[in-house]
Amino acid sequence: MRKILAVAALLLSAAAFSQSKLPAVDKSPMDMSYYPTGYPLLKIQDKATEPLVARVIYSRPQKNGRVVFGELLEYGKIWRLGANEATELELYQNVKIGGSKVKKGRYSLYCIPNEKNWTIIVNKDTDTWGAFKYDEKKNVVKCEVNVEQNPEVTESFTMVFEKGNGCINLIIAWDAVKVTLPIYQ
Amino acid sequence: MIRITALAFLFLFLSACGDSGNNNNNTVVLPAKKQALSLKKETPNPFSIVDVSPMDMSYCPADYPHIKHVVGELPQIRIIYSRPQKQGRTVFGNIVQYDTIWRLGANEGTEIEFFKPVTIQEQKIKPGRYSVYCIPHKDSWEVILNTEVNIWGLNINTAKDTGRFSIPITSTTALSEYFTAIFESTATGANLVFAWDSVVTRLPIAF
Questions:
Q1: In this structure, what DSSP letter does residue B44 have?
Q2: Considering only CB atoms, which chain A residues are within 8 Å of B51?
């Protein structure tokens, strides 16, 4: 079985590579954010004053002149909080999100956007594509956060961590809105 | 047998997708100007600017996130790296100097995660996450695994090196505009393929 697969894979990959198919750059490029903010730079300069808490890896679609929420993204429908691969949240410590305990580890993040609030979902199924195979049985958190209007339009979808009031905030912004997800250590 | 047939079809299907313009599998000769422009039209972002050298990730098996619900197993390897552009410059021996440490990408240190034990050039590597960097020479590269992760790709702490592998360079006539790292399956595991400018290298990984 393994041998057959390996040979099949080899033949196919050799065929693929001989045609010089290398992946193009994604239209919605990937990015990652840490808490503490800028942790990799702080670490190599020995300037990190807090331990590593969280990292998010996500893709950054662009507004491109479109109305994002309610049009490009329909209200009430599950969204991968980005583009391409499902957005990944890695926790380096046990935390609390939306009243639920979340153990350290890797998770996928999803969202159901609505006009006044978003449902944020933390799910155990990782390394997956989009929300196409979203399985709510694997949810570990499902909580609501308020939508705030942002005075400045955010062209590229953005996720960053900030220090909050007794917590860490994951700020999620795109187009004219932003939401804040508090994470308690 | 049914499973083998299904997987064979899956591989064929994915391979066919790659040929017919699946949006992640196009072209090695990237039109430099068009690509560069599409990145530069970014408006300032109040939170976090979009990187000039965007991040990307590759899995082994290739396209794992698309097929995981069919293959039903963990991925074997994942690499997360940033993709600087050639932009008309000679890359190796010029903007990336020979015989000096290079982060195999840009920005954060390139990260590789093995989800199961692997063997590289007779050395056993434990599952886990590593930084991976390189010392490019004219005819070969040394690819180095390091146990310090979540780092920026400079000031690498070489005391934490855990494996050093010399691999030959293959030159091609097809130029890779963007630095690329992908996995190709082999009979014994996979090659981690690096391509940029006219240089291609392959690090064989057995598992």
A1: P
A2: 29, 31
pLDDT of residue B173 exceeding 60: yes
d(CA A107, CA B92): 38
Q: What is the pTM of this model?
A: 0.84
Residue whose token pair is 């991925």: B75
3-state SS class at A8: helix
- Determine whether the interchain pair B188/A6 forms a contact, defined as Cβ–Cβ distance below 8 Å: yes
Test A29 with B51 for CB contact under 8 angstroms: yes
Q: pLDDT tens-digit profile of B132-171?
A: 999 999 999 999 999 999 999 999 999 999 999 999 999 8
Q: How far apart are CA B83 and CA B89, in angstroms?
A: 15
pLDDT in tens, A88-116: 999 999 999 999 999 999 999 999 999 99
Query: Across the interface, do B75 and A127 touch by the CB < 8 Å criterion?
Result: yes
Best CA proximity match to A185, nearest among A34, A52, A49, A87: A52
Which pair of tokens denotes residue B51? Answer: 């990187």
B65 vs A contacts (CB less than 8 Å): 85-86, 127-129
pLDDT at B70 over 60: yes
CB contact under 8 A, B47 and A20: no
Q: Give ipTM to 2 decimals.
A: 0.87
Mutation choice for B interface testing from A5, A7, A13, A42 by most B CBs within 10 A: A13
Tell me the two tokens of residue B139.
């005819």
Partners of A41 on chain B (C-beta within 8 Å) are: 152
Average pLDDT on B15-24 reads 38
